[in-house]
Specification:
The protein is mainly beta. It is 8% helix and 36% strand. It has helices at residues 104-110, 112-117; strands at 2-4, 12-18, 23-28, 32-37, 42-47, 59-62, 74-75, 78-79, 87-89, 95-99, 120-126, 133-142. The longest helix has 7 residues, at 104-110.
């Protein structure tokens, strides 16, 4: 992708693989989720905000996959600041929870609106039968409304479990 206004090289983040549904999840550039379900692979890309949205700080000059820059993400009336960062796949593999804060110092640089508004948690529904992703328009946890907020939520975990995008090896 050729871009203007992007001050960082491509940033590849979590890869998540789960066997039962035959899925691989990747995130790139803090703007989208790509999921490959079943065999043969059928990739689905879902944009969840980020720097390359229309009116954002980055102007996409050339991209073989994008016909135009995506619209800003709005869920339950709130424009989502930031982009997908940390993920947690539900135990049944049918829901993917996503937070939008990576690291506060980087958030300040790449997503200043996120610092002012706080991060959010989104839910992506995963179709484990036909394949594909769909943002759940009825689910939004707004950490900007926390009493001592706005807060920047990063990792999410199940009690006694780990984060699907945990960096510990």
């Amino acid at each position: 992708m050729g871009a203007e206004g992007w001050c960082s090289p491509g940033l590849w983040e979590p890869w998540l693989t789960w066997e039962r549904e035959g899925g691989i999840l990747t995130e790139a550039n803090g703007s989208s989720c790509t999921i490959i379900l079943h065999s043969p692979p059928r990739p689905t890309q879902l944009f969840l905000g980020g720097s390359i949205v229309k009116g954002g700080p980055v102007q996409v000059l050339e991209d073989q996959e994008l016909k135009s820059q995506p619209e800003p993400l709005v869920v339950k009336g709130k424009r989502v600041a930031g982009g997908p960062q940390m993920i947690q796949l539900s135990l049944d593999g049918k829901r993917l929870y996503v937070t939008t804060s990576l690291y506060s110092a980087w958030d300040k640089q790449f997503y200043p609106d996120l610092i002012r508004e706080g991060s959010v948690m989104l839910q992506v529904d995963v179709d484990t039968v036909k394949g594909g992703l769909k943002l759940n328009p009825n689910f939004l946890v707004d950490f900007g409304k926390e009493p001592l907020g706005p807060a920047l939520a990063h990792e999410l975990r199940y009690p006694g479990g780990d984060c699907s995008s945990d960096i510990w090896l």
